[in-house]
Amino acid sequence: MRFAILYSKKDQAGRNIAEQLEKQFLPQIPLIELSKESIYSENIDDMEELKNTDLIIFASKHQSKAGGKTLSVHAPGNWRNADFGGKPGKVCKTSTLALKFLLEKMQENKDKSNLNEYQTTMECTHHGPLIKKPCLFIEVGATEIEWQDKEAAKVIAKTLEDFQNFDAWKNKQENSKENKKKIVSVIAIGGPHYCPNFNKIQLSQKSNIAIGHVIPEYHLPINESMLKEALEKTQEQTNTILLDWKGAGNSESRQKILELCKKLGLDVLRTDQIEK
After folding, report:
1. Most CB atoms within 10 A, among 82, 90, 119, 230?
2. CATH number for the 3-170 domain, one of 3.40.50.300, 3.30.1370.10, 3.40.50.2000, 3.40.630.50?
3. In whole angstroms, what is the distance from residue 74 CA to residue 139 CA?
4. Containing H/E element for 255?
5. Under 8 Å between Cβ of 33 and 8
């Protein structure tokens, strides 16, 4: 997969990650500085440097008032309002397999670096920009202290270097003769912002599930247009929904999700029924 790494000159964490990548000297990977904040960089599809790119990876900060030390990945987009870039009700195309690979490698590289105070996590789909090319975010959070952490930036940079091996990893999964090892791409629904139940599944060696877009509990109830948007903006073909059963509202809310999935001909997997 041909990919490019983009970061904002206004973003301390993004600059630190770029600095570490430059030290690794990877001329085959485009490393592009943006003048705007990444989440507001809407008009980048026509950049000459991205002409032959299959996937854009935004290296960025994650910001949270609650704080905490996080290394995270997620797809961009807005299920409802667009308070931080993008457009209301529109999400970007993303790759379930790329997100799974990066989360696994980030966990592995974090453990090797002894950054035990950091949590490796997915986040639900949120914020801009809205662009045409498939993309995702990889981030260091959640305060200025972490954005300046060189060791955290090194882990992200090493993970991005490892992404050069993505195609070989993908081919191995797709050509596996064991059905249990063949990866199933899914849209995830329910749970909080940091996806604890989805993290366990995404990182489990017992699981063959790759999660792309995540619609969290705080955006329920979902409607047909939200679900169709998620399906259309998933690079890998999927007809499966992964439902955080206990994190999908009350029984009425869960029933509405099941009815909508049935209407659209989608299979439903429950997090509480998957071996982790």
Report:
1. 230
2. 3.40.630.50
3. 9
4. helix 251-263
5. yes
Please say whether the beta carbons of 242 and 215 come within 8 A.
no
Strand partners, 139: 60, 72
Burial string for 170-190 (b: 16+ CB within 10 Å, else e) reads: beeeeeeeeeeeebbbbbbbb
215-229 residue pLDDT tens: 999 999 999 999 999
Other CB atoms within a 10 A radius of the CB of residue 110 amount to: 22
Q: How many Cβ atoms are within 10 Å of 165's Cβ, its own excluded?
A: 11
CATH fold, domain 178-273, is Rossmann fold (3.40.50)
**Residue indicated by tokens 């090892």:** 181
Full-model pTM: 0.96
CB neighbour list of residue 24: distance below 8 Å, 6 or more residues apart: 157, 158, 161
In the chain, the amino acid numbered 206 is K
Domain chopping of the chain, boundaries: 3-170, 178-273
List, for residues 11-35, the tens digit of each pLDDT value: 999 999 999 999 988 989 999 999 9
